[in-house]
């Protein structure tokens, strides 16, 4: 049976309550889902800090940070990179969105952004480029799987504005 594009490996689907998380972010603070209660939240999961696609994606979300804020939407970037790598990535590219470190993959798995990948004929577990839009009600409003970076941040902004 083919799975719906709205259902993740974790079983997370649009309309579900967003899974809670508590993780460190760049700058040494801790971020939780509860910190964003009552507002919309974009979670963009990226495979690796400072790689070409991930850099373009993070720069695009930074470029639109003001527009997301005007739409009542916070934006967080999440990868399994250690905090030091996240901070180097932020500083090198002047990124303006908080970057979360999920080295144990708890949040990645809960949101369906961790799974089997394939490269050069080899299969391995890794981060699946995924974006989740959580509504102000704390429910998953939209899920993007297998994200193509070009134009993606703009599409997410339009979806956030329409909520």
UniProtKB/TrEMBL annotation:
* Broadest EC class assigned to this enzyme: oxidoreductase
> Which Gene Ontology biological process is one annotated for this entry?
cell redox homeostasis
Entry-linked SUPFAM superfamilies: Thioredoxin-like
In terms of superkingdom, the source organism counts as: Bacteria
Q: Where is the Thioredoxin domain?
A: 12-163
Molecular function (GO) terms for this protein are: thioredoxin peroxidase activity
Q: Does the keyword Nucleotidyltransferase apply?
A: no
GO cellular component assignments: cytoplasm
Taking the record's annotation, the residue ranges forming a coiled coil are: none
Gene3D superfamilies, per this entry?
Glutaredoxin (3.40.30.10)
- What EC number(s) does its UniProt record assign? 1.11.1.24
Q: Which UniProt keywords apply?
A: Antioxidant, Disulfide bond, Oxidoreductase, Peroxidase, Redox-active center
The record's annotation in CDD domains points to: PRX_BCP
What Pfam families does this protein map onto? Answer: AhpC-TSA (PF00578)
Catalytic activity reads: a hydroperoxide + [thioredoxin]-dithiol = an alcohol + [thioredoxin]-disulfide + H2O
The record ties this protein, via PANTHER family, to: AHPC_TSA FAMILY PROTEIN, THIOREDOXIN-DEPENDENT PEROXIDE REDUCTASE
Q: What does this protein do?
A: Thiol-specific peroxidase that catalyzes the reduction of hydrogen peroxide and organic hydroperoxides to water and alcohols, respectively. Plays a role in cell protection against oxidative stress by detoxifying peroxides and as sensor of hydrogen peroxide-mediated signaling events.
Q: What family, per the record?
A: Belongs to the peroxiredoxin family. BCP/PrxQ subfamily.
UniProt subunit comment: Monomer.
Q: What is this protein called?
A: thioredoxin-dependent peroxiredoxin
């Amino acid at each position: 049976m083919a799975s719906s594009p709205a259902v993740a490996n974790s079983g997370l689907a649009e309309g579900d309550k967003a899974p809670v998380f508590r993780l460190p972010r760049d700058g040494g603070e801790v971020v939780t889902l509860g910190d964003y209660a009552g507002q919309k939240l974009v979670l963009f999961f990226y495979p690796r800090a400072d790689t070409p696609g991930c850099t373009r994606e993070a720069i695009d979300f930074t470029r639109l940070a003001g527009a997301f804020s005007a739409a009542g939407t916070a934006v967080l970037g999440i990868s399994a990179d250690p905090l030091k790598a996240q901070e180097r990535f932020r500083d090198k590219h002047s990124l303006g969105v908080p970057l979360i470190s999920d080295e144990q993959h708890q949040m990645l798995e809960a949101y369906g952004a961790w799974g089997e990948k394939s490269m050069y004929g080899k299969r391995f577990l890794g981060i699946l480029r995924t974006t989740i839009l959580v509504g102000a009600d704390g429910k998953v409003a939209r899920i993007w799987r297998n994200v193509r970076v070009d134009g993606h941040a703009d599409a997410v902004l339009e979806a956030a504005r329409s909520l």
